[in-house]
Amino acid sequence: MLRFQKQIKYLSSFTVSSYRKPSVTFMAVNHGNGDRQKLHVSQKEAQGIDEELFSEYAYSVDQLMELAGHSCAVAFTKAYSKESLGRNEGAVLVVCGPGNNGGDGLVCARHLRLFGYNPTVFYPKRTNKQLYLNLTKQCQKMDIPFLSFLPSEPQLVANAYNVIIDALFGFSFKGPVRPEFASVIETMMKSQLPIFSIDVPSGWDVEKGDPSGIQPEVLVSLTAPKICAKFFAGRRHFLGGRFVPPELAAKYDLNLPPYPGTEPILELPLHKVKEDCPT
Questions:
Q1: How do beta strands 236-240 and 265-268 pair?
Q2: Cα(205)–Cα(219) distance, rounded to whole angstroms?
Q3: What is the pLDDT of residues 71-129, one digit of tens each?
Q4: N or C: which end of the chain has fewer CB within 10 A?
């Protein structure tokens, strides 16, 4: 654990107001060697942080998945109150992929059920790994329905749900999207429902984004925002996954803002995409 003096070195100035109108200011810190702390991480850095959380800090996959999925569910409640989702008693479609991002989606669905929402899961490519079997069973025991197929007619999806939670692919994704998932993403987009993306909008290049792909209304970045989050042009951007040890944040020169109180999430200010993003 770093001493107090080292912690001061990498923490930045900040102010936090409300969830509705966040006013968080980040100041890059010069370390004297030309390096500057950052908020966004590359795909390689995100993978390195993840690996060290497992190997050096003794976290388990299911432990981090539970923390991440819970923070996503909390962020969802901040963005969409139950009262605002009038269709079919707050019906939400959670689209889960075969990897860890899909696991986050399953955890998120379970917590949303506990929070009084009405989630349905579409999980087209399941795995036989015990962790995912357990997550699936936990959802089923909560009476969360699973779709056997996604209607090809987008209007049917739009008529049944209020919001789509996008948990297909995370920061490990490298394109192109396989055909069986490309059709799912196409249906999600054509439904014109608001999309709530977990960590990385599915199908996006983790660093370059995808202007022709999913354009979520809400994004929840986990651990730290990925570089592609600079291309996010939606309504609200949250940071979740309150589990990064200070020493690990310092190693990767991360300028992560402190979370307010006991909250598992923090709302981040929105980028002005045209001005802030590289071309």
A1: antiparallel
A2: 15
A3: 999 999 999 999 999 888 899 999 999 999 999 999 999 999 999 999 999 999 999 99
A4: C
CB 243 within 8 A of CB 60: no
The β-bridge partners of 117 are none
- pTM here is 0.84
Q: How many CA atoms lie within 13 A of 90 on its CB side?
A: 16
In this prediction, residues 6-33 reach a mean pLDDT of 36
Do residues 101 and 31 touch, judged by C-beta distance below 8 A?
Answer: no
Q: Please choose, from the candidates 244, 177, 170, the residue with its C-alpha nearest in 3D space to the C-alpha of residue 10.
A: 244
Taking residues 220-247, what's their average pLDDT?
95
Q: Which of 39, 38, 50 is nearest to 170 (CA)?
A: 50
Closest alpha carbon to 132 in 118, 119, 146: 146
Cα(238)–Cα(194) distance, integer angstroms: 16
Instruction: Kindly compute the dihedral angle of the four CA atoms of residues 72, 252, 234, 273, in this order, to the nearest 10 degrees.
Output: 180
Under a CB-based contact definition with an 8 Å cutoff, are residues 132 and 163 in contact? Answer: no
Query: How many residues make up the chain in this entry?
Result: 279
- The residue with tokens 């200070």 is 246
Q: Which residues of 223-241 are buried (b: 16+ CB within 10 A; e: fewer)?
A: bbbbbbbbbbbbebbbbbb
Angle between helices 130-141 and 100-114 (to 10 degrees): 20
Are 122 and 150 spatial neighbours (Cβ–Cβ below 8 Å)?
yes
- Please, how many CA atoms are within 13 Å of residue 188, restricted to the half-sphere of its CB? 29
Whether 40 and 225 have beta carbons less than 8 Å apart is answered as yes
Res 21 pLDDT > 80: no
Strand runs labelled E in the chain: 91-96, 118-122, 146-147, 163-167, 195-198, 218-222, 236-240, 265-268
